[in-house]
Amino acid sequence: MPFQFTDDMKLEPSPVQTSDPDLSSRAPVPVLYSYVRSTVATKSVVDPAKMTNLPARFTEQFTVMDSRIVETARSSDDTVKLLIKLADGEHVETVLIPAHGRNTICLSTQVGCAMGCQFCASTIGGLKRNMTTSEILQQILHIQQACDVKITNAVFMGMGEPLVNYDNVVRSIRAIIDPERFGISARKVTVSTLGIPDQIRRLARENLPITLAISLHAPNDTMRRELIPSAATVTLDAIIDAAEEFYESRKREVTLEYLLLDEVNDSTLCAEALANIANRLRCNVNLISYNPVESLPFAPPSQVKVKAFKANLEKHGINVHVRHSRGLDTAAACGQLRHRTAEISPEAEISPENEISPEAEIAPEDE
Known about the structure:
Layout: E1 3-5, E2 11-13, H1 29-43, H2 56-59, E3 68-74, E4 80-85, E5 91-99, E6 102-106, E7 110-112, E8 127-130, H3 133-147, E9 153-156, H4 166-177, E10 189-193, H5 197-204, E11 211-215, H6 221-227, H7 236-250, E12 255-260, H8 268-281, E13 284-289, H9 303-315, E14 319-323, H10 336-344
Parallel strand pairs: 6-9, 9-10, 10-11, 11-12, 12-13, 13-14
Antiparallel strand pairs: 1-2, 3-4, 4-5, 5-6, 7-8
């Protein structure tokens, strides 16, 4: 092929040349590359045949995406989850969360996850592989096409641990904030991590004014290691030290994410311990009520408990936000749709008769 997309959605000449003089290296192809790159990223036109301003001989020489949507789930709260089949047959999820004039995409970075969080569907079945930069970015194109929206915010909070797939995640961030590609403000991009101190410090050295969120989920090492086995060798002190370096590198507040699990980490003592951590780090706290996963032994606390936990933090001067679970009728928490699909047919592709129409809403399930 005379033209090919690189892994981070740049269009470059292929080593294979063409004899067509209009498509040869003597042609003004940089202009064509720029047009295609802009058309794909900013207008979500992924079918070369629809790039009508270009000669057919050019558009016949390349494809944009090698993944496709196999299931679309729409929630009554307007959350949309896509199950995407990658070129090697693996499946990942991405979620659109529209709210308050923003269109936020929740991006996956790995096929599966090796972190072992006891409350998360993504870890069921373990880690298959890292996603490529192109596969990460294709999630944005799929959402913008399927939902006819322009993404305004991006959060790396989907399947996988972003800082384990560091290089591909950083390349995808650079494409997302590039005005000539996706053009999303860096301040509207958030990377969420369970806390890998060396990688947090590495990210702090990048020239990326993004937001860092740390998925804490427990206020002490003992509880955290029970909930997150992969945290056995990483202390909260080490994570906080790295997060403080990240803050000092750009003076942007770090966010602590805390998933509330009924009768597990929602006590008054837990709130007091979390307040101590938050005050040390000078950060915001996002409280998240658990989105239940069938087969896992956890439940969300009552709204009374959530409000009491929030009030305990506020009493200590902590800036607290409650993030309400979205898409409860579409298995919208990390890995749920992929896991449900794997249970139905671990190897086979979803058949057309079982696909969910993009126009239809899913009826509430037992969740």
